[in-house]
């Protein structure tokens, strides 16, 4: 009986751990994407030399840049899927 | 993330490891990797912003070159703002003037460069935070649709 209890509690711990690690991995993936977006959108939106603060125009540009980048990614994915399906026939 | 794999296997071998301890290690490793990524990208961007072409020309930005900085700083007294102090003196008068100018030159150059880099780093963090918020709200909007 003791052996069974020990196994089940260890399994519970292991799956709880897996769940928590999966959450951390998701957070890490989010942050990796933010790094990519910031990299691309910095080049698009930051003009000239660094200023003493981020003005609203630049901030709007950054927000739009993220949205447009995601839209572009979705567009490409969809169109590519269509192309592959057409090619299959 | 390689360290993460080995930690896990050693824990399993030595018996039941505290879940809290493992999660601590995982979070720390992720945070370190994140910081390294941030620094690498920030350095790349700020190098490009503040240095431009190595030995490049002065425009109305903080990109600097040697001779125009000297003249402008002399005229406008900007070296005061940079808290600059000449360090090296020579004994020959001619050499004194030349060397003093060179020291002033490089000190101002360094000072302006540091200012540019500091501002650039702050702006990069601001941009990163803005992008993070934008991405987060976009994800929430997408989830709300489903």
TrEMBL record, chain B:
Task: Please name the InterPro entries in this protein's record.
Answer: Tim10-like (IPR004217), Tim10-like_dom_sf (IPR035427)
- Intracellular or extracellular location(s): Mitochondrion inner membrane
Q: Cross-referenced Pfam families, in alphabetical order?
A: zf-Tim10_DDP
- In terms of one coarse class, where is the protein primarily found? mitochondrion
Record-level GO BP terms? protein transport
Keyword Mitochondrion tagged: yes
Keyword line = Chaperone, Disulfide bond, Membrane, Mitochondrion, Mitochondrion inner membrane, Protein transport, Translocation, Transport
Q: What Gene Ontology cellular component terms go with this record?
A: mitochondrial inner membrane
Membrane topology value: Peripheral membrane protein
Q: Does the keyword Ligase apply?
A: no
Ranges for domain Tim10-like: 25-64, 114-136
The UniProt family comment states: Belongs to the small Tim family.
Q: How does it assemble?
A: Heterohexamer.
Q: What does this protein do?
A: Mitochondrial intermembrane chaperone that participates in the import and insertion of some multi-pass transmembrane proteins into the mitochondrial inner membrane. Also required for the transfer of beta-barrel precursors from the TOM complex to the sorting and assembly machinery (SAM complex) of the outer membrane. Acts as a chaperone-like protein that protects the hydrophobic precursors from aggregation and guide them through the mitochondrial intermembrane space.
Please give the record's comment on domains.
The twin CX3C motif contains 4 conserved Cys residues that form 2 disulfide bonds in the mitochondrial intermembrane space.
Official protein name in the record: Mitochondrial import inner membrane translocase subunit
What's the encoding gene here? TIMM13
